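Reposting from the mailing list since nobody answered there.

I have sequence plus structure tokens for a pair of proteins and want to know whether others read the tokens the same way I do. The first protein:
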Amino acid sequence: MPTPASFDYAILRVVPRVERQEFINAGIVVFCLEKRYLEARIQLDAERLKALWPAADVRLVKKHLDAVPRICAGDPAAGPIALLSQRERFHWLISPRSTIIQPSPVHTGVCDGTDGLLDRLAKQFLL
């Protein structure tokens, strides 16, 4: 029987104009120390982004978002942050920023295993 483990997650939001306090969910990052699990899913709705911000450079936003799963995977091509420990990478990814891509507050949960965890969370928050 699997041992329950706690996990943390944050939703990545695209905030085109901070002063309007509008955002769209564009990704999710999940970290489970006990299971040595750090993964991210990116799902940017370009049409919604353009509706909120017609001048948005969707390609540039997507490029920055696409770096997140590579950092989670520890891909050396993703830069020096990808070479840190999983815990350090997660904390770097979810640290507050004033840029267009911002993390939500960190939320917690409990899982028996990580199989399907990211899929369930992505379905709940990204669709």
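The second protein, same order (residues first, tokens after):
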Amino acid sequence: MSKDPDSIVAILQEWRAAGKPAALATVVSTWGSSPRPEGSHLAVDEAGHFVGAVSGGCIEGAVIDAAAQVIASGCPQLLEFGVSDEQAWQVGLACGGRVQVFVEPVE
């Protein structure tokens, strides 16, 4: 589910006010084909509920898994995903590209 950044922040604030640990994932860098631009966000709570989007779905699961680790450890992670133009069709992507996503705990 994609939401505007203000809605994502509001939902994060609701989660934190309710005492729910959460993490925020942000697209910090892209190269080539990327379904979401830099600055796109995905918020995740400790139960795995999420709002926003950092991809067209192809890396969302990995980012949600990383968010769970970040929530548990309190340590941020910088994730990088990519596929070459030659491999793109093999993995179901129309074009190659690379994206970096920073995942941080929300206090």
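Reply #1 (J.P.):
I read it the same way you do. DSSP finds three helices and five strands in the chain.
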